[in-house]
Amino acid sequence: MSRDPRYDILFEPVKIGPVTARNRFFQVPHCNGMGHQHPQAHAAMRGMKAEGGWAVVATEECEIHPSGDVSPYVEARIWDDHDIPYLSMMTEAVHRHGSLAAVELVHNGPSASNLYSREVPLGPSHQPTNYYPFQVRAMDREDIRNYRRWHREAALRAKRAGFDIVYVYAGHDLSLPMHFLQRRRNQRIDEYGGSLENRVRLFRELIEEAKEAVGDTCGVVVRFAVDEMMGEDGISSEGEAKDIVAMLAELPDLWDVNLSNWKYDSQTSRFAEEGYQEPFTAFVKKLTSKPVVGVGRYTSPDRMVSLIKKGVLDMIGAARPSIADPYLPKKIEEGRLEDIRECIGCNICITGDMTITPMRCTQNPTQGEEWRKGWHPEIMPAKASNDRILIIGGGPAGLEAARALGQRGHEVALAEASTELGGRVNLESRLPGLSAWGRVRDYRLGQIAKMSNVETYPGSPMGVTDILDQGFERVVLATGATWRKDGVGRSHAFPIPGLDTAKVFSPDDIMAGRLPDKGPILVYDDDLFYLAGVLAERLAKAGLEVIYVTTADTASSWTSNTLEVYFVNKRLHALGVRVICQHDLVAVRNGVAEIAPAYGEAVQHIPVGAIVPVTARLPNDALYQELMAAPEKLKDAGIKSVTRIGDCLAPGLIAYAVYAGHRYARELDAPDLGEVKFRRALPLVTTP
Ligand code: ADP
Ligand code: SF4
């Protein structure tokens, strides 16, 4: 297949100072939870994107000095020459595929913790650090001179590590040049504070000095947050950002522009559409002749072309779309648009960085496994046997297992009880804001449709006899899970008294469209992730009065890890949902819910029309248990193995179900001996 000529424009080279990107696809810096602690995994992950056609592949933020240490978060590090070999692994992996490697140099200033280095944190003025119960000290002139020297030395080191592009980073409220720009932080009265020109001085000096140090061979680019979404109190695209871009317009070799802070930059599909940053960043190109990069969860090639043609961007920046599909550029280049695995905008990837673990992705189960398991996002090993596989259940686990086994060349049949394939993805993607999650199903159905060795059978509820009659060698149960109605979960080991006789609607009921007819509806969130919040939204939008009770400090508290918690709470408030935090549902009597506070004694009594407990799920594994109870029958039917995957084994995230399906297909022939199944980056032990 060859590409449609209307996408040719995306494959034009772009000059970035002394270096040239081979096309317009730019993987902008993104965190990944690997950083300096997992250098091999990090290098392989970045290298995969170069292989997949991203012309520029950047690191995440790369700390330049121990006084800007963000421990325990694991980012890249370039404190001294010892870091060079680790970073070189990445630049070599990127160069191997003809792409440019970029490094985002950072000193985190008031956003640093210095929990590891124990240095005193630095900032433009005396002020509390962003996240910790201690303060930064105001930098004096000598500190500023030192910082400039560290930055320059880091740029020189980056060049020695093989980087082609060096970033000066003023974004996300995470780096000193940004902190010096902000009026609210920079209250200096010297030449670095006060007027905008003075506040820009440090940013300008860093760019000039990086250019002087490495600009002969490296592109020196900036990442600049043009809007902090706080109006006059911050940098804003209607205010000072325009003046800042105008003042520095031709100085950097490229402008990478975005929103700040991170929750605005990486908004989920639940709260922002593809291209959501465009209204804020569009002005930049009018003020500079240098190439401009921007992000906005772009996965549509037509949208990309229009951005270039309209003169909004010169290069298509992407973090998440490059995680979900490292091969996105190559697929456009080869005219294989239907093969693109589009990011669903769920931010499970971000939970990796937030929980200080290598990131994972809902759409791309090989993400993070490139080095440690040797998994390639596009290539599967050929089948090692002629085993035919029967999969029961067409949710994310069953669909990915079918797709991946099909890619290996196995003969596969997928039986699904309902008339639609997709399982929980169908149900959840119909909830408010989650329609993009349907891409998990659509990508897999699209791939399966092209495989003559995979057959799907919707509308086929399977029992033991059906399975035994089919004559497949292997059986996979991907039959999902069911939400409990009895309140058992984190806070209750035993059923909540009174729920058995109360009007209870489970999340499955609501998702299937079975709604209570009158409120108030008490949504009890003891699950703490997204679902209770989305269900409350669904019910409120159906015109019902909703009371949201959670054991946590805030509604949908774990969505802090997907950067959504602020938006969730704002939305519930806007919908008039009454949120009661730090309370537990302890009983229901005669249509009255009793909720007890975490602190204090006073139990509240709330009359309710119905209760929606969001607490825990139980696997739908009855079929598995029945099959396993009849080993002789399995043997007679020629069945070699029966395996549970996804929610049927242990209810989890959609990402886990996809991963489980993929893993089954990869490891079908590998005996499970219970050993560690991946490579680890172990610290080098040296004798003094
Ligand atoms: P997962 O997230 O693990 O993929 P889902 O709940 O999304 O799980 O999907 C499970 C699917 O399995 C559902 O679509 C359900 O209809 C289907 N299913 C459950 N039991 C059977 C069965 N006995 N025969 C066929 N399909 C089944
Ligand atoms: Fe996109 Fe979700 Fe994958 Fe992140 S985890 S890249 S948001 S699909």
Automatic annotation (TrEMBL):
Transmembrane segments: none annotated. Pfam families: Oxidored_FMN (PF00724), Pyr_redox_2 (PF07992). It comes from the Bacteria. Gene3D superfamilies: Aldolase class I, FAD/NAD(P)-binding domain, NAD(P)-binding Rossmann-like Domain. Residues 388-625 form the FAD/NAD(P)-binding domain. SUPFAM superfamilies: FAD/NAD(P)-binding domain (SSF51905), FMN-linked oxidoreductases (SSF51395), Nucleotide-binding domain (SSF51971). Its cofactor is [4Fe-4S] cluster; FMN. Residues 10-336 form the NADH:flavin oxidoreductase/NADH oxidase N-terminal domain. Keywords: Flavoprotein, FMN, Iron, Iron-sulfur, Metal-binding, Oxidoreductase. GO terms for molecular function: FMN binding; iron-sulfur cluster binding; metal ion binding; oxidoreductase activity. In the N-terminal section; belongs to the NADH:flavin oxidoreductase/NADH oxidase family. This is Dimethylamine/trimethylamine dehydrogenase. It comes from Dongia mobilis.
